[in-house]
Structure formats: C-alpha cells, structure tokens
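Late entry, 3-iodo-tyrosine complex.
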Amino acid sequence: MPNFIPLKFITFSEEEQLRRAREFNDEYQRRRTVREFSDKPVPRELLEQFLKTAGSAPSGANRQPWRFVVVTDPEMKHRIRVEAEKEERESYEHRMPQEWLDDLAALGTDWHKEFLEIAPALIVVFAVNYDLDGGHIHKNYYVKESVGIATGFLLAAIHHAGLASLTHTPSPMDFLQKILNRPENEKPFLLIPVGYPKEAVTVPDIHRKPLQEIVVWK
Ligand code: IYR
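Prediction complete; structure with ligand written out below:
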C-alpha cells in the first residue's frame, strides 16, 4: 500500500488569489536574462536555497533525474570558458545557419563568453538518464521535461532573491561532462551563470508575445 499523508494546502480568498497572481506576474515580467555580470560573490547558503527549490520540481515517477554542479573555482571557470568559446566560435563561424544567426542578432550574442569567468557561480544542470542501483540500470522517465521544469524553478528562485541568471547553451557541451568529471549517465543540459548584473547593464529591447498569441481558449 502506498503511504499517503495529508496535503498542506493554503487557501486564499478570491481577492487575495488575484492580488497574489498579479504580484507574481509583475515580478516575473521583470525577469530578464543578463549576459554581463559583476564578480561580486554569492553566498553558498543562498545558492543552496535556489537548488532546494529546483529540487522540489515535479518529475517523472518522482525520480528527480537532475544533478546540479556548482562551479565557483576560478581555475575551473577558466577551463569551462576556454572550452565553451572553442565550441561557440566554431558554431558562430561555421555551424549555425544564417537564419539562426539572424534570429540571434537582436540579442547581440557572439562566441565570446567572458561571463563564464566573471559570474561568481556557474550552475551546470545535468540530466540524469538513468541511475545505477548496484549495477542495475534503473531508467528515469520524462527526463528532459522534468529537468526543464526544475530549471524553471531554479531561474524563478534566483530572480525572486534579486539575483540575475543566464540560460547558456554552449554547443556541443560534452566538454562539461569531462571537465566536471561526471559519470556517463549524466548529460549536460544547461549552464546557468548566477550573480549580480554588471553595473548599469543594458539588455536587448525585446518583447513578450501578448496573451492572444500564446493562448487558445476553447
Ligand atoms: N549557444 C550560443 C548561441 C545561442 C543560441 C540561442 I537558441 C540563444 O537563444 C542564444 C545563444 C550562445 O550561447 O551564444
């Protein structure tokens, strides 16, 4: 028999629900990806809170198929930057089709990735495709979906605490598995620099699709 326990559920009045939903939306509309960081350190305890929130995400069969590697060591950040820039340069100069480069033009990205050394912490998110239970390959389910949701929770927690993040996707990113010495069942999913924005930072003037473009009511 499965063990069930009472749900701890907080109910709000309809007025309070709307107030909270608006406040939450306002807060998350202000979240922006930041590509230039200050080197001001972030306390480990704060990072731990973000990671606990990420780890509370729903997952396939509750197998929690994620691993978060937090890199603060300058030497390791340097190695990651060197390897990422090697791949990114090749991508920008040879691998990405023109349409992709055109789509990125408004964001002003290129192969230079200084932020990998400047940001005080890099959270490398790994997707765990299977666990090894005493030599037995125990598969995980809906791994990409689960890790994507956990990453969303992580970004929200970082923003809520007044810090900035960047969802960075060096490609290909197998070099992270090697540099960070992670086992074969863990595959790099996203690399998230975390920290304070550089002073007077600017961000691209991009807009979010209005509700009528993203929602269909039936
Ligand atoms: N991985 C590259 C390119 C890149 C791709 C997408 I899709 C973006 O939204 C942003 C960048 C880079 O990190 O620069």
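The pocket of 3-iodo-tyrosine is lined by residues 88, 104, 107, 109, 168-171 (CB under 6 Å). Will revisit in the morning.
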